[in-house]
Sequence to fold (184 residues):
Amino acid sequence: MGDRSEIIGVAPVAIVAGGSGTANYHFTIARDQVRFFRDSLIPIVWADVEPNVTHTYRLELVGTALYVWYIDGDVVDSGEPEAAYPPMSNPRIVWQARSHIAESTTQWDYIRFGRRPADHSGDFDSSGTVDIQDFYFFAECVADRGNGPGVPVDPGCEWADMDQDDDVDYHDFALFQRAFTTPQ
Fold:
Protein backbone atom coordinates (compact mmCIF):
# COMPACT_ATOMS: atom_id res chain seq x y z
CA MET A 1 0.00 0.00 0.00
CA GLY A 2 1.09 3.55 -0.51
CA ASP A 3 2.28 6.08 2.01
CA ARG A 4 -0.13 8.41 3.79
CA SER A 5 0.65 11.10 1.21
CA GLU A 6 -1.40 9.01 -1.23
CA ILE A 7 -4.64 9.14 0.79
CA ILE A 8 -5.71 12.48 -0.62
CA GLY A 9 -6.75 12.10 -4.24
CA VAL A 10 -5.54 8.67 -5.28
CA ALA A 11 -7.01 6.24 -2.72
CA PRO A 12 -4.32 3.53 -2.48
CA VAL A 13 -6.83 1.04 -1.03
CA ALA A 14 -10.50 1.74 -0.43
CA ILE A 15 -13.56 -0.04 0.92
CA VAL A 16 -16.86 1.75 0.41
CA ALA A 17 -20.38 0.89 1.54
CA GLY A 18 -22.82 3.38 0.10
CA GLY A 19 -25.74 4.00 -2.16
CA SER A 20 -28.29 6.65 -3.03
CA GLY A 21 -28.74 7.67 0.59
CA THR A 22 -27.03 9.93 3.08
CA ALA A 23 -25.11 7.21 4.95
CA ASN A 24 -21.85 6.23 3.26
CA TYR A 25 -18.94 4.46 4.93
CA HIS A 26 -15.59 4.89 3.21
CA PHE A 27 -12.24 3.49 4.42
CA THR A 28 -9.16 4.79 2.62
CA ILE A 29 -6.10 2.82 3.70
CA ALA A 30 -2.45 3.69 3.17
CA ARG A 31 0.65 1.97 4.53
CA ASP A 32 0.61 3.81 7.87
CA GLN A 33 -2.68 5.70 8.08
CA VAL A 34 -6.40 5.13 7.54
CA ARG A 35 -9.14 7.67 6.87
CA PHE A 36 -12.74 6.84 7.77
CA PHE A 37 -15.48 8.96 6.22
CA ARG A 38 -19.09 8.41 7.39
CA ASP A 39 -20.95 11.22 5.69
CA SER A 40 -20.50 14.90 4.99
CA LEU A 41 -21.95 16.08 8.33
CA ILE A 42 -19.63 14.03 10.60
CA PRO A 43 -15.90 14.86 10.83
CA ILE A 44 -13.40 12.52 9.15
CA VAL A 45 -11.57 10.16 11.50
CA TRP A 46 -7.84 9.52 10.94
CA ALA A 47 -6.05 6.56 12.51
CA ASP A 48 -2.37 5.69 12.39
CA VAL A 49 -1.54 2.02 11.79
CA GLU A 50 1.73 0.15 12.00
CA PRO A 51 3.21 -0.09 8.50
CA ASN A 52 4.00 -3.37 6.73
CA VAL A 53 1.89 -5.60 8.99
CA THR A 54 -1.50 -7.17 8.37
CA HIS A 55 -4.47 -5.29 9.84
CA THR A 56 -8.12 -6.24 10.21
CA TYR A 57 -10.73 -3.59 9.42
CA ARG A 58 -14.35 -4.09 10.39
CA LEU A 59 -17.47 -1.97 10.21
CA GLU A 60 -20.65 -3.04 12.00
CA LEU A 61 -23.94 -1.32 11.27
CA VAL A 62 -27.06 -1.74 13.38
CA GLY A 63 -29.81 -0.11 11.34
CA THR A 64 -30.10 3.56 12.19
CA ALA A 65 -29.05 3.01 15.80
CA LEU A 66 -25.29 2.50 15.65
CA TYR A 67 -22.16 2.16 13.56
CA VAL A 68 -18.90 0.84 15.04
CA TRP A 69 -15.57 0.93 13.21
CA TYR A 70 -12.75 -1.38 14.34
CA ILE A 71 -9.08 -1.73 13.46
CA ASP A 72 -7.50 -4.97 14.70
CA GLY A 73 -10.44 -5.55 17.04
CA ASP A 74 -10.19 -2.14 18.75
CA VAL A 75 -13.01 0.40 18.46
CA VAL A 76 -11.73 3.43 16.55
CA ASP A 77 -15.01 5.27 16.12
CA SER A 78 -18.70 4.71 16.79
CA GLY A 79 -21.89 6.68 16.84
CA GLU A 80 -25.35 7.14 15.47
CA PRO A 81 -25.48 7.11 11.67
CA GLU A 82 -27.33 9.73 9.71
CA ALA A 83 -29.38 7.06 7.94
CA ALA A 84 -29.67 3.30 7.62
CA TYR A 85 -27.42 1.18 5.44
CA PRO A 86 -28.21 -0.28 3.03
CA PRO A 87 -30.18 2.63 1.63
CA MET A 88 -33.55 2.18 -0.04
CA SER A 89 -32.03 2.48 -3.51
CA ASN A 90 -28.77 1.56 -5.20
CA PRO A 91 -26.96 -0.12 -2.26
CA ARG A 92 -23.40 -1.15 -3.06
CA ILE A 93 -20.11 -2.24 -1.59
CA VAL A 94 -16.91 -1.48 -3.47
CA TRP A 95 -13.35 -2.45 -2.67
CA GLN A 96 -10.33 -1.53 -4.68
CA ALA A 97 -6.56 -1.61 -4.49
CA ARG A 98 -4.52 0.74 -6.59
CA SER A 99 -1.63 3.10 -6.33
CA HIS A 100 -0.61 5.79 -8.78
CA ILE A 101 2.48 6.92 -6.90
CA ALA A 102 4.20 3.79 -5.55
CA GLU A 103 4.04 0.04 -5.97
CA SER A 104 1.10 -1.43 -4.12
CA THR A 105 0.70 -4.89 -2.61
CA THR A 106 -2.74 -5.54 -1.17
CA GLN A 107 -4.37 -8.80 -0.19
CA TRP A 108 -7.91 -9.44 1.06
CA ASP A 109 -8.51 -12.51 3.18
CA TYR A 110 -12.27 -12.02 3.17
CA ILE A 111 -14.94 -9.41 2.84
CA ARG A 112 -18.28 -10.31 4.38
CA PHE A 113 -21.54 -8.52 3.91
CA GLY A 114 -24.64 -9.66 5.67
CA ARG A 115 -26.14 -10.26 9.04
CA ARG A 116 -24.26 -12.14 11.71
CA PRO A 117 -26.02 -15.36 12.67
CA ALA A 118 -28.20 -14.98 15.74
CA ASP A 119 -28.87 -18.65 16.37
CA HIS A 120 -25.54 -19.56 18.08
CA SER A 121 -25.25 -22.57 15.75
CA GLY A 122 -21.61 -21.95 14.81
CA ASP A 123 -22.56 -21.44 11.14
CA PHE A 124 -20.96 -18.01 10.73
CA ASP A 125 -21.15 -17.92 6.93
CA SER A 126 -24.77 -19.19 6.84
CA SER A 127 -23.83 -22.02 4.47
CA GLY A 128 -25.96 -24.60 6.28
CA THR A 129 -22.88 -26.41 7.59
CA VAL A 130 -20.45 -25.77 10.42
CA ASP A 131 -17.12 -26.26 8.70
CA ILE A 132 -13.53 -25.05 8.41
CA GLN A 133 -14.62 -21.67 7.04
CA ASP A 134 -16.68 -21.10 10.19
CA PHE A 135 -13.76 -22.28 12.33
CA TYR A 136 -11.59 -19.52 10.86
CA PHE A 137 -13.96 -16.89 12.28
CA PHE A 138 -14.52 -18.81 15.52
CA ALA A 139 -10.75 -18.98 16.11
CA GLU A 140 -10.52 -15.23 15.48
CA CYS A 141 -13.12 -14.63 18.18
CA VAL A 142 -11.29 -16.84 20.69
CA ALA A 143 -7.63 -16.03 20.03
CA ASP A 144 -7.38 -12.59 18.51
CA ARG A 145 -9.87 -10.77 20.70
CA GLY A 146 -8.65 -11.84 24.14
CA ASN A 147 -11.92 -13.58 24.96
CA GLY A 148 -12.07 -16.22 27.65
CA PRO A 149 -13.97 -17.39 30.72
CA GLY A 150 -15.72 -14.45 32.38
CA VAL A 151 -14.54 -11.93 29.76
CA PRO A 152 -17.53 -10.20 28.12
CA VAL A 153 -17.92 -11.28 24.51
CA ASP A 154 -16.57 -8.74 22.01
CA PRO A 155 -18.90 -7.10 19.50
CA GLY A 156 -18.97 -9.20 16.37
CA CYS A 157 -18.37 -12.43 18.27
CA GLU A 158 -21.75 -12.87 19.93
CA TRP A 159 -22.51 -15.65 17.43
CA ALA A 160 -19.53 -17.65 18.83
CA ASP A 161 -20.99 -17.56 22.36
CA MET A 162 -22.65 -20.88 21.70
CA ASP A 163 -23.63 -21.55 25.31
CA GLN A 164 -24.98 -17.97 25.60
CA ASP A 165 -23.20 -17.16 28.88
CA ASP A 166 -21.82 -13.82 27.60
CA ASP A 167 -18.25 -15.01 26.98
CA VAL A 168 -16.41 -17.06 24.35
CA ASP A 169 -14.34 -19.80 25.96
CA TYR A 170 -13.50 -23.52 25.94
CA HIS A 171 -17.14 -24.42 26.66
CA ASP A 172 -18.13 -22.69 23.42
CA PHE A 173 -15.29 -24.45 21.59
CA ALA A 174 -16.58 -27.83 22.81
CA LEU A 175 -20.04 -26.96 21.45
CA PHE A 176 -18.49 -25.77 18.19
CA GLN A 177 -16.65 -29.11 17.86
CA ARG A 178 -19.90 -31.02 18.38
CA ALA A 179 -21.65 -28.87 15.76
CA PHE A 180 -18.83 -29.28 13.23
CA THR A 181 -20.22 -30.93 10.08
CA THR A 182 -18.24 -33.79 8.58
CA PRO A 183 -17.62 -33.18 4.86
CA GLN A 184 -19.73 -35.49 2.67
Remarks:
- Residues 37 and 44 are 5 Å apart (CA to CA).
- The chain has a mean pLDDT of 75.
- The beta strands are 13-18, 25-29, 33-37, 45-48, 57-62, 66-71, 74-79, 92-97.
- The first helix runs from residue 7 to 10.
